[in-house]
Design goal:
The structure is a single chain. With about 475 residues, the chain is α/β, with parallel strands linked by helices. The chain has one domain (about 1-465): Amidase signature (AS) enzymes, CATH 3.90.1300. About 40% of the residues lie in helices and about 10% in strands. It has helices spanning about 10-20, 25-45, 50-60, 105-110, 155-160, 180-185, 220-230, 245-250, 275-290, 305-330, 340-350, 355-375, 405-415, 420-425, 455-465; strands spanning about 50, 70-75, 115-120, 165-170, 185-190, 210-215, 260, 295, 380-385, 430-435, 440-450. The strands form two sheets. The protein has an eight-stranded mixed beta sheet, sandwiched between helices. A three-stranded mixed beta sheet has the order 1-3-2. Strand 7 (about 260), helix 9 and strand 8 form a beta-alpha-beta unit. It is globular and about 55 Å long. It starts with 11 loop residues before the first helix and ends in a 14-residue tail after the last helix. It comes from Pyruvatibacter mobilis. This is Indoleacetamide hydrolase.
């Protein structure tokens, strides 16, 4: 691999195969990833926390024999801990928060052979569909640096889209894997609730709405990483249904003829704009060409109930996070320590009752049954909508430091009305990069399967990737130069 000019020809499994064949060393791959990051990150600001020395020490200690041995990897700066490194949650309140242990999922990445060399930018506590924390500043979209890469896994998506690495950790509590995958032209899958572990510090995220996995260029990398990380851990409060076989096998399996329910209108009544609608129409045409049946139908949910449940579960968790940080610091976390919207959400959480939290939990469980019943009644194998109702918004459109909370809620409702329902129902849901606007901005299409059925998603994603490949598309800001 002379000069690493071939780096972009390989996904993560391909790079691991080169290491396995001794065509390249893990150190050479790490050096290439670091060089690429340094080349583009002055522009993108995707990776504020660098673990170069720790990554080199990891290699020197010897890497395990796993599916991704020697592949450079980045964690999102939210929840996942790596011993001896800082996790800030995108918040100044957590500056200097050094981990004394690994998260369970971090350990599984290490056991798979990943070489972790940094953490990607996230909005404060993952609370926005963009990535512009006060602490580190905005991450820019490599397709157009005036635009957001999405959030809350915006740093991860920007780094992968810009060719720094082929796959990176991401998490999703209201769309935060799928939204940046859409905005950056990547594949992103939110797994079924409890598919990946959240221990040892938590049993679930945001009342079961949040889960971690990855954004990637290739579908097969995403599937193989889920294979490596998806088993329940001892002590987990509950587990997702076990897969019938490896997800990697599903990627090359042609799906049966699927019946897919399509909608361009989100549960809150907000609809896709004209450019996004064009992508949805083209996707429906492609699906029919591939032999699938597409019908127009959507479950009817109460948007007020959804909103109340979401804020009850999220706000109570944010209040607890700040309270626990106060205990660790030995002083109160104040309004000055966090962004204005964060503080408002936490104050809302402190005003909730135990009955409010219980009602929120009851609501999302009812939603799960409502959507499951809808899919059964419609004989629908999958649900299809755009991932986002608008193309990637410009930076500054979503402002976590704004005092206009109504405006913050309004833009979120108009920009991302589709993903959050499936965090509440716990269903697996993916964004597939199938459309670009006339201005060259990516637009993802979101497919959602019944609870526990990532297999069908990976089968369809593999078919779509073969039919409309996206892996060779490069944004204007790219590490290859």
């Amino acid at each position: 691999m002379s000069g690493f000019s071939e780096y972009d020809q390989y996904d993560a499994l391909g790079l691991a195969d080169l290491v396995r064949r001794k065509d390249v060393t893990p150190t050479e791959l790490l050096d290439e990833a670091i060089t690429r990051l340094e080349r583009v990150d002055t522009t993108l600001n995707a990776v504020p926390l660098r673990h170069y020395d720790e990554a080199r020490a990891q290699i020197s200690r010897g890497l395990p024999d796993g599916p991704f041995t020697g592949v450079p990897f980045l964690l999102k700066d939210l929840h996942l801990l790596l011993t001896g490194t800082v996790t800030t949650y995108g918040s100044g309140a957590f500056t200097g928060n050094v981990a004394d242990h690994n998260s369970t999922l971090t350990q599984r990445y290490l056991d798979a052979g990943m070489v972790i060399f940094g953490k990607t930018n996230s909005p404060e506590f993952g609370l926005a569909g963009t990535t512009e924390p006060r602490l580190y500043g905005p991450t820019r979209n490599p397709w157009n640096t005036e635009h957001s890469p999405g959030g809350s896994s915006g740093g991860a998506a920007a780094a992968v889209a810009a060719g720094v690495l082929p796959i990176a950790n991401a998490s999703d509590g209201g769309g935060s894997i799928r939204v940046p995958a859409s905005a950056c032209g990547l594949f992103g899958l939110k797994p079924t609730r409890a598919r990946t572990p959240m221990g040892p510090d938590r049993g679930e995220g945001w009342g079961g709405m949040s889960i971690s996995h990855a954004v990637s260029r290739s579908v097969r990398d995403n599937a193989a990483l889920l294979d490596a990380t998806c088993a329940p851990a001892p002590g987990d409060p509950y587990a997702a249904p076990a897969p019938a076989r490896p997800y990697l096998d599903e990627v090359t399996t042609e799906p049966r003829r699927l019946r897919i329910a399509l909608t361009a209108t989100g549960p809150n009544g907000n609809s896709a704009d004209t450019e996004v609608q064009a992508g949805l129409d083209a996707t429906a045409t492609l699906l029919r060409e591939l032999g699938h049946e597409v019908i127009e139908a959507a479950p009817k949910v109460d948007p007020a109930d959804m909103a109340l449940a979401q804020i009850s579960l999220i706000a109570s968790n944010i209040a607890l996070t700040l309270d626990m940080r106060s205990e660790a610091l030995g002083r109160p976390v104040t309004e000055n320590d966090v962004e204005h919207i964060t503080w408002a959400i936490a104050q809302n959480g402190r005003g909730l009752t135990a009955a409010d939290f219980a009602r929120g939990t009851l609501t999302i469980h009812r939603l799960g049954r409502l959507v499951a019943d809808f899919m059964t009644e419609q004989k629908a194998d999958l649900l299809l909508s755009p991932t986002l109702a608008l193309p990637p918004v410009k930076l500054g459109t979503v402002n976590m430091d704004s005092e206009d909370i109504a405006a913050y809620l309004d833009i979120n409702a108009r920009y991302m009305p589709f993903p959050g329902l499936f965090n509440m129902t716990g269903q697996p849901s993916m964004s597939v990069p199938l459309h670009w606007t006339e201005a060259g901005l990516p637009v993802g299409m979101m497919f959602t399967a019944p609870f526990g059925d990532e297999a069908t998603l990976f089968q369809l994603a593999g078919q779509l990737e073969r039919a409309r490949p996206w892996g060779d598309r490069r944004p204007p800001v790219h590490a290859a130069g």
